[in-house]
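Re: your question from the hallway

Yes, I did run it. Sequences:
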Amino acid sequence: MNAAGVTLKPQTGPGASARRIAALIRRHAYLLLKSWPRIVSMAYYPTVTMVLWAFITVSLAPTNSFLQDAPGFFLGAVLLWDVLFRGQLGVSLTFIEEIYSRNLGNLFVAPLSLTEFVLAQFALSVLRTLIGVGGACLAAWLLFHYSIFSLGLPLVAFFAGLLAFGWGIGLVVSGMILRFGLGAEEFAWAAIFLFAPVSGVYYPIDVLPGWLQWVAAAIPSSYVFEGMRAVLVDGVVRTDLLVRALVLDVAYVALGALVFSLAVGHARRHGRLLQMGE
Amino acid sequence: MSTPTPAIVVSGLVKRYGAVEAVRGISFSVRAGTTTALLGGNGAGKTTTLSMLLGVLEPTAGDVRVLGVDMRRDRRAALPRMNFTSPYVDLPKRLTVAENLRVFADLYGVAQAAERVASLAREFDLAGLMRQPYGTLSAGQRTRVSLAKALLNGPELLLLDEPTASLDPDVGDRVRTWLTGYQRRTGCTMLLASHNMVEVERMCDDVVMLREGSVVDQGSPADLVARYGRGTMEEVFLDVARGRDDAAVPLPQRDPATPSSRAGERGTDSP
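Structure:
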């Protein structure tokens, strides 16, 4: 107990880290879970996109043998793409929220490490993704009798592979916002779409020009969507593709962490942490 | 009797932004258990210095030791023992007062967080505001919440950047009373940047005067007032801010362990 009569819990070790991460998660969960418009808005876009592709499937399936063999192809693709998009947004928007609140200064003078801050961002990304994509999955099952779980156990690997790639991109975007200010906020919404053409969400990678196939080979999402097609079309689980995706994920998360860490260092040198806000 | 270790020791601290030298090799120390003011006009380097003390701004050169910890190497060892409040930062506006305080209590690892939050709510007259979103509060109410946040961990060192800026005289007076009361009860060290000379005279044992990033004078408010041959700290401030400090009569250096006299009596007004 200190002179003010306050007892502080241990400040080091995994338990202390977990407590601080949980505190940051609680800070954002308070915000998310008590606002139904926020929850609706998170599920709105994935659900509307899913409905669109579901009707495209319904209209094309009678004359398309491919869709007759794999009726869940477009729905699986659109739902998994949203895992990537929501995963990235979850990291970037959590950070932007702190800037809007002018709360970065309070967080960076609290005994919270940068690693703990980032791990909390990842956890919140999972929460946002589950809310956003979960709503669309539920709607797909209710309206079109399509269950994302029909992908089987590989779904877990697909989910993890896309989410981790989203985290890497989300950290790069957070770093850019910290470095260049809220003017770079648009990257949070747009950055991931740069990867859409080379991810092969709706088509196989081999339809791309040769040089773009090399680009696709360097991003994890292309392997995940190839893996999804292997499950849906051929009924085969391609572990080789999943392993490549996860290895690349590690590299992208490390790259994102490096960019974010460099941006925090720059902000520390230029006095932006206390003053950054709307 | 041994001299207590200073709570803050700043040596040769420099901060440059390109060609602009915001802080120019300043050195000072703050005795444990005292209240010290960083005084200076706009752009004098007060907030820059506080930021470096907190470890959120990297010095270009120099050393900062806070509570015996080298802030450039191991700031996280000191952060649980200190806290801060500033008009430049805010709390999440859509969270209620109770939610905000609970989150920060957990970040600082306060045991029995609910009891501590309730106790501060009573102390700062926040009980009726706990369920209100922070963003709906008045400036005075927000300041009280920010101070409650700053006291959650029972800090040994409190850094206050313009703690009563934008407050009406009544709320400003209450805040000063709370702070001096906390300091008396706990013996904590306080360093505040302020433009309010009445506040400085009332609360502070020592003053470090900055101009254009350099320390131009320091001493107790009473010493400074006497040395400049002025009646109040406000007049001393104007002399220093306008570069009329050459006429100041140097006084013998005071033993840092000896408590200085205060220009004003503390805590004379009711909460």
